[in-house]
């Protein structure tokens, strides 16, 4: 499972991953406004790479049970609801209960993470990762020196500061695809508010609650439905894009009978259209 480019915000108290889901890559996301657990990781083979975590409450993140996780190049930044005390600038591990007897023990690999203002360039990458809800250092038996074996389509990590800039420049619902397969920038006010809060270190000083919604302190905008691109053969690909690349509407197909991959690179032509990539040039899947 791959979770990328999303905003996870205004959730109130916390954010979980599923306990029984494995092989998850979480990268280039923005987590903001939750009190804690950004996210809480309860399972194994999880890669948390190049995310931005902002404005948590009593702890920046959490792992538990037999979690096997890589944390690489993430950027943590306290906000208005983050208590200005080093004890709240932490991620915790709670090994108090294993989820399954035949699972391997928990292990955590940390590299290149930044947490403002206390851990901007820690000599010990585990300095902010602690046991339980205390300042007790993470037990050495949970530390793993090498990252997990890369996934079939690996995530390419960049330094945390570069990830911070990249996430804020391109996260959330910020574009739509036109009939030529070109992404047109179109940020909505909700995503823009969250991004501005991170940049300016503003936002709520408490987890979002029902009263905030009732009083319209937070609200979703009325969205313009727009005009859909023309898709005469109902295969999901815009007519203009198919004509641009193939000169007709029948070379590329996506239906119950036929799913084409013109350049034989492992990506269906529909995937090439949705990704904004070139269906006539091989990419590595």
Secondary structure elements and pairings:
Blueprint: E1 2-4, E2 7-9, E3 14-16, E4 24-27, E5 30-32, E6 36-41, E7 44-49, E8 52-54, E9 61-64, E10 68-72, E11 75-77, E12 91-94, E13 107-111, E14 114-116, E15 129-131, E16 136-137, H1 160-169, E17 175-177, E18 183-185, H2 189-200, H3 210-214, H4 239-246, H5 269-275
Parallel strand pairs: 1-4, 2-5, 3-6, 4-7, 5-8, 6-9, 7-10, 8-11, 9-12, 10-13, 11-14, 12-15
Antiparallel strand pairs: 15-16, 17-18
Tell me what you see in this structure:
- With 285 residues, this protein is an alpha/beta fold.
- The protein has a domain at 2-168.
- 15% of the residues lie in helices and 23% in strands.
- The protein contains five helices and 18 strands.
- It has helices spanning 160-169, 189-200, 210-214, 239-246, 269-275, and strands at 2-4, 7-9, 14-16, 24-27, 30-32, 36-41, 44-49, 52-54, 61-64, 68-72, 75-77, 91-94, 107-111, 114-116, 129-131, 136-137, 175-177, 183-185.
- The strands form four sheets. A six-stranded mixed sheet has the order 3-6-9-12-15-16, with no helix packed on it.
- The longest helix is centred in the C-terminal third of the chain and has 12 residues, at 189-200.
- It is globular and about 65 Å long.
- The model has no long low-confidence stretch (mean pLDDT 85).
């Amino acid at each position: 499972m791959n979770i990328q480019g999303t905003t996870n915000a205004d959730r109130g108290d916390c954010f979980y991953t599923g306990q029984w889901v494995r092989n998850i890559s979480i990268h280039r996301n923005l987590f903001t406004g939750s009190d804690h657990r950004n996210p809480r990781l309860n399972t194994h083979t999880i890669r948390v790479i190049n995310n931005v975590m902002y404005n948590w409450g009593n702890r920046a993140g959490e792992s538990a049970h037999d979690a096997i996780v890589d944390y690489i190049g993430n950027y943590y930044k306290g906000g208005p609801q983050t208590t200005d005390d080093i004890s709240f600038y932490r991620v915790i591990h709670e090994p108090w209960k294993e989820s399954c007897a035949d699972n391997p023990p928990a292990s955590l690999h940390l590299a290149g993470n930044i947490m403002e203002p206390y851990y901007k360039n820690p000599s010990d990458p585990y300095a902010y990762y602690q046991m339980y809800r205390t300042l007790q250092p993470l037990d050495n038996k949970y530390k793993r020196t090498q990252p997990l074996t890369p996934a079939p389509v690996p995530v390419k990590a960049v330094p945390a500061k570069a990830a911070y800039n990249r996430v804020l420049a391109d996260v959330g619902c910020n574009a739509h695809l036109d009939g030529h397969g070109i992404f047109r920038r179109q940020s909505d006010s909700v995503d823009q508010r969250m991004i501005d809060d991170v940049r300016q270190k503003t936002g709520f000083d408490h987890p979002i609650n029902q009263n905030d919604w009732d009083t319209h302190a937070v609200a979703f905008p009325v969205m313009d439905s727009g005009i859909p691109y023309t898709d005469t053969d109902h295969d999901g690909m815009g007519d203009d894009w198919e004509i641009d690349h193939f000169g007709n509407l029948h070379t590329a197909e996506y239906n119950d009978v036929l799913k084409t991959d013109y350049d034989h690179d492992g990506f269906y032509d529909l995937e090439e259209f949705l990704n904004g990539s070139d269906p006539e040039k091989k990419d590595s899947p």
